[in-house]
């Protein structure tokens, strides 16, 4: 697998991390393209412009967007939570690929609009149906536009960094959880010995050591004893 080629394809993708391509993020999709496990036209947010760039990079003919994966938006969107209906279930927080939703269990959640990529992965998990995708005129020109400016690239780079940080955080939390579960599994067998039995074991070990010391002293030559 060519890591450089993967990096170059990932740099073209919009970094919405929406999973509409069928993969768990832009990077996995780029890897699948290089491995031959995905076509170049499965990214609706990237639109025809993105397909064209990937085709040029790979030196292959371009093709139209596969609309089985969705359609490109005509404008940039951002998630919005009706906070009066939010019950604090945290499902949206868990589903956000860039940690753009903050809140705590049983408390109101809110979207950090500047960090939201418009992926809409938070909409379906919400049991209260209180999340909507609304137009965000503050964002840079949308990904379907023919103009690619510095603001757009900066937004993509930022989203990529947040996505990568989240992946690292989740991996770290899983390792910590695994260690905790392993410790919980081992400890019961270690604590099954009652305090009384433990005391007897300690005393027996002490007596054994004392007997060994006496035996060693008795076996010393008389010249040494004197």
Automatic annotation (TrEMBL):
Gene3D superfamilies: 3.30.70.20, Electron transport complex subunit B, putative Fe-S cluster
Xref: InterPro entries: 4Fe-4S_dom, 4Fe4S_Fe-S-bd, 4Fe4S_Fe_S_CS, Elect_transpt_cplx_RnfB/RsxB, RnfB_subfamily
Pfam families, sorted: Fer4_21 (PF14697), FeS (PF04060)
Assigned keywords, A-Z: 4Fe-4S, Cell inner membrane, Cell membrane, Electron transport, Iron, Iron-sulfur, Membrane, Metal-binding, Repeat, Translocase, Transport
Coiled-coil positions: none
Domain 4Fe-4S positions: 1-60
Domain 4Fe-4S ferredoxin-type: start-end pairs: 77-106, 107-136
Record keyword Transport present: yes
TM regions (residue ranges): none
GO function term, MF aspect, one: metal ion binding
Name used for this protein in its record: Electron transport complex protein RnfB
Provenance organism: Nitrosomonas ureae
């Amino acid at each position: 697998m060519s890591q450089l080629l993967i990096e170059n394809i990932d740099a073209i993708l919009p970094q919405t991390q929406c999973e509409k391509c069928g993969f768990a993020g832009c990077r996995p999709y780029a890897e699948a393209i290089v491995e031959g496990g995905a076509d170049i036209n499965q990214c609706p947010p990237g639109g025809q412009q993105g397909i064209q760039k990937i085709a040029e990079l790979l030196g292959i003919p371009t093709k139209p967007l596969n609309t089985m994966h969705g359609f490109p938006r005509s404008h940039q969107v951002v998630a919005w939570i009706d906070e009066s209906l939010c019950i604090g279930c945290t499902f949206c927080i868990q589903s956000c690929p860039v940690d753009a939703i903050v809140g705590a269990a049983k408390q109101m959640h809110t979207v950090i609009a500047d960090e939201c990529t418009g992926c809409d992965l938070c909409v379906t998990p919400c049991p209260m149906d209180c999340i909507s995708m609304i137009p965000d005129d503050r964002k840079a020109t949308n990904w379907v536009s023919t103009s690619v400016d510095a603001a757009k690239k900066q937004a993509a780079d930022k989203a990529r960094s947040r996505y990568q940080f989240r992946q690292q955080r989740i991996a770290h939390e899983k390792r910590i959880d695994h260690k905790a579960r392993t410790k919980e599994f081992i400890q019961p067998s270690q604590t099954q010995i009652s305090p009384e039995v433990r005391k007897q074991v300690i005393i027996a070990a002490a007596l054994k050591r004392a007997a060994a010391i006496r035996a060693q002293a008795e076996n010393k030559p008389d010249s040494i004893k004197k």
